Amino acid sequence: METKIFLNLPVKDLNRSIAFFTQLGFSFNSKFTNEKGTCLVIGENINAVLLVEEFYQTFTHKEICNTDTTSEVLISISLETRDKVDEMIAKVIKAGGSEYRTTKDYGWMYQRTFLDTDGHHWEIFFMDESQIPEMS
Predict the structure, then answer these.
(1) 51 touches 11 (CB < 8 A)
(2) What is the pLDDT along the chain (136 residues), one digit of tens a residue?
(3) The domain boundary residue, chosen from 21, 47, 63
(4) From CA 21, how far away is CA 92, in angstroms rounded?
(5) CATH code for the domain in which residue 45 is found
(6) Distance from the CA of 65 to the CA of which of 10, 19, 50, 130 falls in 20 to 30 A?
(7) Would you say 39 and 29 are in contact if contact means Cβ atoms under 8 Å apart?
(8) Diameter of the chain by CA atoms?
(9) What letter does residue 18 receive in the DSSP assignment?
(10) Do 36 and 55 touch, CB atoms closer than 8 A?
């Protein structure tokens, strides 16, 4: 069996989160979807499980962070081109998310950042590994 990643994120309104990520072009695994949560498919072996806060709380004794004031995780996803990065940001804004930081262009990596409708921090980027400067 291949290793898979299931990143779990609390959400306030599951239907709103599903609508948001659907507008970004993501799909969901129906095997892991009910009224308490859904499995957002990011890649072949990478998923984000979006769980309503009350259900998420059953997995931890810790308080769910307030994403308005606290950073819990930075979720980074690579895309095929710079244009795809820009297209994703346009979809994010149209779907109700917000661009969080200014665009970073390092030459070899192009990065933009957004917050989803629950305030989770996502970084999307294009990287040309052949152009990474050598470390000195």
Answers:
(1) yes
(2) 789 999 999 999 999 999 999 999 999 999 999 999 999 999 999 999 999 999 999 999 999 999 999 998 999 999 999 999 999 999 999 999 999 999 999 999 999 999 999 999 999 999 999 998 887 6
(3) 63
(4) 8
(5) 3.10.180.10
(6) 19
(7) yes
(8) 52
(9) H
(10) yes
CA–CA distance, 110 with 14 (Å, rounded to integer): 31
Continuous segment of H or E residues that includes residue 42: strand 37-43
User: Same structural domain for residues 89 and 134?
Assistant: yes
Asked if 97 and 120 sit in the same domain, the reply is yes
Domain's final residue, options 22, 44, 63: 63
Its domain, for residue 37, covers: 1-63
Q: Which alpha helices (H) appear in 30-95, and where do they start and end? A: 53-56, 82-95
Look up residue 107 and give its two tokens: 């030459």
